[in-house]
């Protein structure tokens, strides 16, 4: 029987099950298939913090959502068109977000009385009519998987571990995904265990064949490739892009890179990836704690390497003293904070943007430093290069603020050519730079570049450049310890001026205002870029003009930011915190921005931001009407 193939322009699919059901792997493989097909895509992994969360419970549900389309998209989507639920817990946790008419694929084997009771179902939803609003496909997926792999002699428990591949095969058929990449992956991943390898391959093919032959699936779907700028593309996650960006930045600066890091969710993948790249001059050190990681990185910077450390919010608190030391030493150090929900341990696998004020002020004394933030998973590459550029050019620690949503999410990335990457020039001090009163030549470690205010970078062991560093205040120029009041004032203001000077190398703020008559500006930073962009598109389609701008540089701000803010009647600032950027903007520019804040551990949905923008536009129109009647 030849089945009908329908063309659709976009689809949102969510795989959901126990954290041990392999939903992240299934989602990742579907993503790779989709990337190789040429669709634009965006993903949202969502999983518990526990290594093995309680099976069959609501807190133990793990999910992976992918939004793919034949056109440019910005978010993983608000609600799934297709939900694959491997057990009652996955169904109950995700059903409230499933729109009426959506496709539901369920493993009926798991809907036992015990599993239903565990999550609070009084009756089986597959039998009581409560799912009638959805296109429900219920079949014994676990049993079908066991039947498909029985020839390989696995126990039923081991055989059931392949059911994620069965589900992946079915959904891959349903949306006409290419399968070669998944088959190659399975052969490589399980090469040392032929029985497991063959079982996963058999399960995947059985799922595909089930879709092809089952009468329940009379239609499959196709999403055409998206039109993209010419070039070579690959799918990339934020943490992987960040690691590649750090390597690229170090290579452009012709510096060896030293990473001192302590594993912490969601930053650990950067350490894992960088450890693979010794051939690019990368040295990785897995420290015994956060403090050791950052101090080792700072020591490497003193020795002439690009010092890098990676962490999340709790680690930032521990690193604060050494980051302050880096401010005083004026050495290049890149601190990557992959933010997560706090405070304290908080929710390690959930996302948040709540470390901005910590990055700005979380050190004793006046300890200013530049802050940059990527806006998408692929943009982590460019943001990392920018952090390296600022750090080595201005001799300063730089904080790069990513977050869990960017770190684990993925999207297509056009691999840049080397010539497209910015030049990063490093000039080490090689000879004395000061003539004393008696005519001798000496090396002054705090004699500054007149444009950048950067002090010279002298590699220890260079003849004639012996100098002392430390946390005690140094005298301007010669760098001896100084307790002079006027000198301290000068050094504090000079360090601030050096950070302010970064703004001269920052491009003017790019504002997307298609009609040039918008009265509302939506301003964001970090990972809010996608939801804000999708919401602005939706609002414009309804005839409401709105402008969008996004900040990469959070300290210092772009030089024209104040002018941009004052050119709009209202400025809406969505943040995954309680208004940290809003507070900074109000204090700096005396503009009463409108905050829109959520701290749920999840990214914004485009729908809720569409509503917020529409409501603000309505209130502005009402004010204008009332004013005209006066």
TrEMBL record:
Natural source organism: Actinopolymorpha rutila
GO molecular function of the protein, one example? Answer: 2-oxoglutarate synthase activity
Q: Which InterPro entries match?
A: 2-oxoacid/accept_OxRdtase_asu, Pyruvate:ferred/Flavod_OxRd, Pyrv/ketoisovalerate_OxRed_cat, Pyrv_Fd/Flavodoxin_OxRdtase_N, Pyrv_flavodox_OxRed_cen, THDP-binding, Transketo_C/PFOR_II
Keywords per UniProt:
Oxidoreductase
Which enzyme type, at the first EC level? oxidoreductase
Offer one example of a GO biological process linked to this entry. Answer: response to oxidative stress
Please state what the protein is called. 2-oxoglutarate ferredoxin oxidoreductase subunit alpha
**Keyword NAD, does the record have it?**
no
Q: Name one Pfam family in it.
A: POR
From the UniProt record, list the coiled-coil ranges.
none
**Enzyme Commission number(s):** 1.2.7.11, 1.2.7.3
Q: Which residues form the Pyruvate flavodoxin/ferredoxin oxidoreductase pyrimidine binding domain?
A: 257-476
Q: Which residues form the Pyruvate/ketoisovalerate oxidoreductase catalytic domain?
A: 20-207
Superkingdom to which the source organism belongs = Bacteria
